[in-house]
Request: fold
Amino acid sequence: MDDREKRSADLERRREEARLGGGAERIAQQHERGKLTARERIDILLDDGSFQEVGMFVRHQVRDFGLADRRPYGDGVVTGFGTIDSRLVYVYSQDFTVFGGSLGLAHARKITRLMQLALENGAPIIGLNDSGGARIQEGVDSLGGYAEIFLLNTMASGVVPQLSAVLGPCAGGAVYSPAITDFVFMAKNTSYMFVTGPNVVKTVTQEEVTAEELGGARTHTEKSGVAHMACENEVECLHRIRDLFGFIPQNCEDSPPFVQTDDSPDRMDEALNDMVPEHPNKPYDMLEVIRGLVDERNFFEIHAGFAPNLLVGFARLGGRSIGVVANNPAALAGVLDMDASVKGARFVRFCDAFNIPLLVLEDVPGFMPGIDQEWGGIIRHGAKLLYAFCEATVPKITVITRKAYGGAYDVMNSKHIRGDLNFAWPTAEIAVMGPKGAVEIIYKRQLAEADDPATAEEDFIRQYRDTFANPYIAAGQGYIDDIILPAETRYRLVRGFDMLRNKVARNPRKKHGNIPL
Ligand code: HXC
Reply:
């Protein structure tokens, strides 16, 4: 072997060592737990053969706690870039087989270097998290490393899309970086997120809880709202991230990708004509309305398990991405409560930051009444959704399918807060409140004095309905741009968004707004 061959063999040996991470035994343990390795995850996430690693030979510089003899290549995180559907993306993938994926200074700097590259080159960053949190042996250096990541997450917010998959036990600091990013994906039964785990919880509050109950995928996608999608397993998680990619742009200056479709923009969906039931309080599934309208019935729902009374997600119309925000009468009559408001606000802000036009489908009886809601801050949370729609400058179209009552009428992208096109179906009812509540207030005296209060109330309700249970008063005022048949809605939306493609609208110059958090 000559010198050149020796150098080449030496490099290959070191590369092999780096690829093995914590070694064959730990890799086997990872597999036994139903988890993939950091590199296997990257292979599934990215286009075949596109991954280029950066920082393979980085090692920590710590000498204490016996770490001088344990300096694995890569320091527990694989970083680099590659493509999804031929579009550039930066990826870091924590390696649980090395120090439990814990984060020390070298590990953190690999991630922040990658984030800098993503920011400077305007491409999304995806973090695959599997980490025991701050590396205890590195003390304040690891805390500082986390803080540097949080800072860059914040700097990158609204500049490039940031996506996180949580694919293992993410404890302590490991949860806050994903929490700042735009979307968090989890895998059922193998992913956990908590600030403190079950043992600490038991010591401090005497509560007994399993890791899955405390911070598993279902908990965070249904109860806390911290995560946006609970997948059956890691492979599904990685595929879903690829799917999401198809709807979003590379950065805040870019447009989402155009995807050719065979679904004609002129398609009429007759089934939509029968979607809204005769009885005003009978539920129907707004998911079916969305599917009837969008290309190939393909709706990529976000946060499906959390606040199902408001649906949010991505779809395409005529090949172009839109963000859909829709009240769903099939859950809690489509009312706006605290969770729905926060869910909607965050989604609207993502779409606005990344040039994704918004479609609002509205059937909302108002904000949720109740002590829990008032004490929990429905005013503050509802204001978030209001604020988000008010500040959004992307093209915004609303279709009122049935109820648009009270403050919720204003909030759901009304004309008054810069809805570009506001349509209503003939079944729309636009009023300050529902008939019964309204009649009880404005005819209180007449009802008290009536010989037959029940019949009198019925009459007043009929009168009120005749006046307000239609979209023509609002259309007469110009608050509704047109009244359209359900079946023709897709056609009108495709043309509407097409007309708005070059929209330019700006908010006043400011350092930043002060959304009611
Ligand atoms: C150093 C760690 C580590 C850590 C795990 N390891 N967490 N090393 N720092 N934080 C190491 C273990 O020593 C072990 O190494 C290997 O990773 C695998 O860990 P196990 O415990 O054997 O695995 P498992 O049983 O699956 O449990 C995983 C775990 C548990 C749930 C993550 O290890 C754990 O609870 N770790 C501590 C979590 C934590 O409290 N982190 C600090 C949070 S404070 P060997 O060599 O023995 O195999 C924090 C502050 C940041 O993060 C604040 C910023 C806002």
About this structure: The mean pLDDT is 95. Residues 151 and 380 are 26 Å apart (CA to CA). The chain has three domains: 3-245, 270-433+469-499, 435-468. Residues 3-20 form the longest helix (18 residues).
